[in-house]
Amino acid sequence: MAIKELIFVVDTDITHRQMMVGWLKDQGYQIKVFDNGELCLNMLDENPAAICLDINMPGLSGLEILKRIRLANRDIPVMVITNNDALGPAVEAMKIGAFDYMVKPVDKIRLQTNVERAIEMYSMVNKIQRLQGELKKTYSYKNIVGHSESMRQIFGQIDEVSGININVFIGGESGTGKELVAKAIHFNSAYRMGDFVAINCGAIPEELQENEFFGHEKGAFTGADDSRPGKLEGANGGTLFLDEIGEMSPKMQVKLLRFLQDKSFEKVGGTKKINVDLRVISATNRNLQDAVKEGRFREDLYYRLMVYLISLPPLRVRKDDIPLLINHFLKKYKDEIPKKITSVSSYAMEALDRYPWPGNVRQLENEIYRAMVTTQTNMVQIENLSPDIQKHREGHVGDDNRFIPAIENQQTVQPVISAPIVEPLSSHPTLPAAGSTFDEIEKKAFLEALNRANGKVPQAAKALGISRATFYRKIKKYRSAT
User: Fold this and answer.
1) How many CB atoms lie within 10 A of CB 287?
2) Strand partners, 101
3) Of 1.10.8.60, 1.10.238.10, 1.10.10.10, 1.10.1740.10, which CATH number belongs to 316-405?
4) I need a labelling partner for 116 at 20 to 30 A (CA). Which of 41, 143, 293, 391 fits?
5) 327 with 407: CB under 8 angstroms?
6) Which helix (H) or strand (E) holds 176?
């Protein structure tokens, strides 16, 4: 028989204690026995899966032990054991949070069943808490990739708005991460215990939008054989994310406005008002102000939704984040793709840096994934990129065996700018020879920076305080002149 979980048995009655221990050992459990509560409390760090606790012990009572377990934020299931003439303390123990109570002499089947049920419940609670912690970590703004100034401003906004129950509007081009930001707000808010329910308003036919939002009662229309809840009910206690809100039909805009005013609605075919408590986050990749001016979107609804605005920057204005994003995607797909791909060549990096990314982060992710699939080495090469992206490599420096390494254990988001990887150029440089031209002086500075950075262009450019694009242009100019 496999060894099962650890159970604490706390009882001063030796005969009764030995009987319980025998029955539990028959089930394969590990047992630790205590004849007083102090010893039990001192051993809680061993993380028992359940505790059988005599509530009528002399000295430190079972009731006091239970209180101290709960005060220590321990969710260990505790089954209290009492005498027939002392049910009052058992009832009090249930109020404090005991899993169940049993009367002496304890029934064998009830003891074994209660312990099994308690362990199953404890395991499930731990699993749920762990998953919730993982979700919160996954969607924490501190795990959204980026360290550019524009992204640090976004992180500040997420932090600011998460603790306030107001409607949030997220604007930005397709692929900038609007839903990711919405989830970060949800999982860091008071509504994180509820569901995050997303609706793509542009993907639902106009005639089905009302039913999708509000649900319907049985018999509301042909084929409505059962009552069905809508997305609003599903989001009760959580967050409703309305993506592509600008595509919502005029009729549905009126109904959404009424819901936002009352926080109540009726199902299709129903008359009963249903109240819900949720946060509404909406998003679009279009200019909603233009839609208001053109009469395609209600102005009153616009202001109801636009209480707090977050505008996500396109990738082309946060180029400094591209190496971080590439590194993130290399790590994200390393287990999915059976190749040890750890870096991107300098040619490929130059092209990726110069490309304007109309599809933003989503397009970059797809490009890196495709390149990882097609490369035959442990490095993404220029030929692994799409032809349109390859065309954006303007010249090169050296051979294509220079690379941008994946950064191990990298903190993708920090509220401070990291220090330069290479040493800055000397603050007391050697003066150029008399008669040197400006181009000759500049060329020497560029080549010295490249040499100090071991041929790695991003680091050399950073040491000079210029962009990679400028560095590439200058080096191309000086190489072609020699």
Assistant:
1) 11
2) 80
3) 1.10.8.60
4) 41
5) yes
6) none
Q: What is the mean pLDDT of residues 75-80?
A: 90
The amino acid present at 95, given as its one-letter code, is K
Burial string for 405-426 (b: 16+ CB within 10 Å, else e) reads: ebeeeeebbeeeeeeeebeeee
Look at 77-86, 310-319, 399-408 and tell me which has the smallest mean pLDDT.
399-408
CATH 1.10.8.60 domain range(s) in the chain: 316-405
pLDDT at 325: 94
Amino acid identity at 104: K
**DSSP code at position 478:** H
What would the mean pLDDT of 344-367 be, rounded to a whole number? 94
Is the confidence at residue 10, as pLDDT, over 80? yes
Better-scored residue on pLDDT, 16 or 138: 16
* Gap between the Cα atoms of 267 and 216, Å rounded: 5
- Give the tokens for residue 296: 């395609």
**CATH number belonging to the domain at 141-313, selected among 3.90.600.10, 3.40.50.300, 3.40.50.80, 3.30.230.10:** 3.40.50.300
Q: Can you tell me the mean pLDDT for 85-107?
A: 86
DSSP state of 405: E
> For residue 196, what pLDDT is reported?
92
Give the Å distances, CA to CA, from 261 to 258, 265, 296, 361, 404.
5, 10, 21, 35, 53
Cα–Cα distance for residue pair 409/422, rounded to 1 Å: 19
The contacts of residue 444 (CB under 8 Å, 6+ apart) are: 432
Residue pair 176/221 in contact (Cβ under 8 Å)? The answer is: no
Res 417: pLDDT: 28
Residue 225: exposed, middle, or buried by beta-carbon count in 10 A (0-12, 13-18, 19+)? exposed
Q: What is the per-residue pLDDT across 187-239, written as a single tens digit (0 to 9) for each?
A: 889 998 889 999 999 999 988 999 999 999 888 888 888 888 899 999 999 99
Number of Cβ within 10 Å of residue 399's Cβ equals: 10
